Amino acid sequence: MFYFGADYYPEHWPEERWPEDARLMAEAGFNVVRLAEFAWSKMEPEEGRYDFGWLDRAIDVLSDHGIRVVLGTPTASPPPWLMTRSEGLFIVRQDGRRATYGNRREYCPNNPLYYGDSRHIVTEMASRYGDHPAVIAWQIDNEFGASCYCSICRASFQNWLRERYGTLDVLNAAWGTAFWSHVYTHWSQIPVPVITGRTPNPGLDLDYRRFMSDTYVRYQQQQLDILRALCPDQPITHNLMGFRYDGLNYFDLARPLDFVVWDNYPVLWFDAEADPAAVALGHDAMRGLKQQNFWVMEQQSGAGGWEAMGPMPCPGQLRLWTYQAIAHGADAIVYFRWRTARYGTEQYWHGILDHHGQPGRRYEEVKAVGAELARIGDEVLAAQSHSQVAMVLSYDSRFSLQGQPGHSDFSYPALFGSYYEALHRRNISVDIVPPSADLGAYRLVLAPALHVVGQAEADNLRTYVAGGGTLLLTARSGVKDEANAIVNMRLPGLLADICGVEVADYALLPGDTAVPLRIELPGTAESEQGGEAQLWSDVLAPTTAQTVGRYAGETYAGEPAITLNTANGGRTLYVGTIGDSALHDTVVGWLVDAADVRASAPTPAGVEATERWKDDRRLLFLMNHTAEAQTVKVPRPATELITGEQVGGELTLAPYGVAVVRGA
Ligand code: GLA
Ligand code: ZN
After folding, report:
1. Which numbered atom of ligand 1 lies nearest the CA of 263?
2. Which DSSP string do the residues of 2-51 spell out, in sequence order?
3. By residue range, what is the domain housing residue 612?
4. Strand partners, 640
């Protein structure tokens, strides 16, 4: 069944209202809601006294209307009675100051007391609802994140390091603690990287980020173990935050879960408008975590914001974003939230219904989508993406570059996103994979700024290229070893032989400097080869590669900037600068031609086309992200699923309109 529904907070509304909510939901085609993930104080009003009566009744009311339930464990937001028992329960932020009560995510994820509290509430919930026929899945906690720097975390970090390095000699060597006399002679001397300590040793910095990520993986595991034991038939997930969020290694967090869900907000309060490529990247990154379809557990359904609001989605956009999610692999859509809260920090975070609770235009739009999905949900459910292109997402590199971007304007996610966008613009399906992934099935692999590289990762790329693959690498790759020390080699370090090139010299380009390039990629007209060097300039010394781009100005005019190596069985293009989006577009255009990558369909600018496969039949999703009608060519006569009509030749999409074409 295609699950369709909303995040519902019955505890925010009088019980007399619940039947009306359930009725309106059923009319909108809902068959699922998520409940209870912030309801700890209602479920356990004081220590050890549990009250699930209200939740039982809410579930009953919903079940009576055919609506199933995903239950959230409430540990993201503990009640005051719990947190006021010990100051140590509160997180210490990077500025060294301890949080106080009044928001959420204030708990220290290593605190043993909190482990105990979490175990109790989750065990109670799991025992009560583990075989409830209406409860179809569990969500653990809510949006893990927030690093803690308290003394408990510090001790736990020291233990984590002991496990990783074994001896202090190994740690001291890996981190290079001879620098500034940091040689540790006892584990307990090792600090945590609070801001007041200024820039830490990069080895310590990266390890702390990894440790915090592992901390949440471990915290999650406690709840997973309880739920698996008591609720063996209900799948378990956690709601992640897409590609935007960079505090945890999401590959690690997702691994033990049964399925991935994420929270998709195309326009946050600081966004002027939705960026369709950025949203698509969020979906693809989440599909990539387990290389399997996912759910959207919070799909934006109104303007959001805490202090100030962001843009209100235009008529048609909620529907468009819903189909965009499905087009990228969503097997369920749950909107955040059913009704806008009258109280609390999120009074301005709009749901499907406004504060007054009467159906309005967003309700009508969602209801229309519900009617469509009631017809075609089964046709799109579990369809697969077959990508010929992968992008390698390295959390080690991302974490390392958070601590030291090297250039103050350099952003790993921005570079990654810009290359992704060049693929997205061409309607090319992309899998997002970890550096250890088996790449053999892909025609093209992009690994921009693969900064931290271990031997196994370098070997993986080497094997891929040796098998005939086409690989893109860029400046700032192969710079660091796994301990975040700079390699004792010419750059790009362990990747140099794959690229057939060495970096002879490099220089930063100040933020506002753009250096023209003379690009000579084989087989491409000069007019199609735009782009400038920005932020960074490697001066390249090819060993086995050929030069296919040179700086055409400034200090390094005439020197090699881009090289192509075909000596290793495949092709490796090395771009020795960060560059602008025009450069990324040129490079991607050449790569997809060279690797013979297939696009879903040609579309006008602003219209996204994505394909998924159900058995051998292709579903072509056409999505108009513009406010004007757009015309798209359909290659052969086929059925448009939403209308059930035959289409052929051309198809017109209304502003923010969508079509799902089967068989074209
Ligand atoms: C997140 C959280 C929700 C809610 C929304 C809107 O995604 O998971 O609880 O706070 O953002 O702010
Ligand atoms: Zn802590």
Report:
1. 7
2. -EEEEE--GGGS-GGGHHHHHHHHHHTT--EEEE-TT-HHHH-SBTTB--
3. 607-662
4. 645, 661
319 inside domain: no
Phi, psi of 238 (to 5 degrees): -145, 145
Atom of ligand 1 nearest to the CA of 142: 8
Q: Report the C-alpha gap between 295 and 301 in whole angstroms.
A: 16
> Are 46 and 131 members of one domain?
yes
Question: Which residues face 536 on adjacent strands?
Answer: 508
How remote is the C-alpha of 181 from its chain's centroid?
Answer: 39
CB of 329 closer than 8 Å to CB of 296: no
| Residue 355, domain member (yes or no) | no
Question: What is the Å distance from ligand 2's center to 214 Cα?
Answer: 13
* Same domain as 174, residue 37: yes
522 touches 548 (CB < 8 A): yes
414 Cβ contact list (under 8 Å, min separation 6)? none
- What is the rounded CA–CA span in Å between residue 545 and residue 532? 21
- Cα(99)–Cα(93) distance, integer angstroms: 7
Catalytic residue numbers, as ranges: 143, 298
Q: Is residue 335 part of a domain?
A: no
Give residue 184's identity as a one-letter amino acid code. Answer: Y
Task: Let me know the angle formed at the C-alpha of 501 by 499 and 503, rounded to the nearest 5 degrees.
Answer: 120
For ligand 1, pick from 346, 347, 352 the residue to mutate: most ligand atoms within 8 Å of CB.
346
**pTM, two decimal places:** 0.98
Residue 545 has pLDDT above 90, yes or no: yes
The rounded Å distance from CA 75 to ligand 2 centre is 15
Instruction: pLDDT band for 197, please (50, 70, 90 cuts).
Output: confident
The answer to whether the beta carbons of residues 76 and 142 sit under 8 Å apart is: yes
Tens of pLDDT, residues 567-613? 999 999 999 999 999 999 999 999 999 999 999 999 999 999 999 99
3-state secondary structure string, 352-389?
A: CECCCCCCCHHHHHHHHHHHHHHHHHHHHCCCECCCCE
Q: Which DSSP letter does residue 565 get?
A: E
Long-range CB contacts for residues 175-183, cutoff 8 Å, separation at least 24: 175/201, 175/203, 175/204, 175/483, 175/485, 176/201, 176/203, 176/485, 177/201
Strand-pair partners of 25: none
- 3-state DSSP helix/strand/coil % of the chain, to nearest 5: 35, 25, 45
Residue 155 Cα to ligand 2 midpoint, Å, equals 9
Query: What would the two tokens of residue 71 be?
Result: 């239950």
Of 49-63, 189-203, 230-244, which range is least confident?
189-203
Instruction: Convert the pLDDT of each residue in 375-418 to its tens digit.
Output: 999 999 999 999 999 999 999 999 999 999 999 999 999 999 99
Averaged pLDDT, 140-151:
98
| Residue 523 banded pLDDT, cuts 50, 70, 90 | confident
247 CA to centre of ligand 2 in angstroms: 15
Ligand 1, residue 265: give the atom nearest the CA.
7
Note whether residue 370 is domain-resident.
no
The average pLDDT across 2-14 equals 98
Q: Residue 262: which of 374, 348, 144 has the closest Cα?
A: 144
Task: Verify that 474 and 616 share a domain, yes or no.
Answer: no
Please count the structural domains in the chain. Answer: 3
Nearest residue to 317 (alpha-carbon basis) of 594, 642, 657, 88: 657
Q: Best substitution site from 75, 139, 142, 261 to test ligand 1's pocket, by max atoms within 8 Å of Cβ?
A: 142
> Do 70 and 185 have their domain in common?
yes
Phi, psi (5° rounding) for residue 187?
Answer: -55, -35
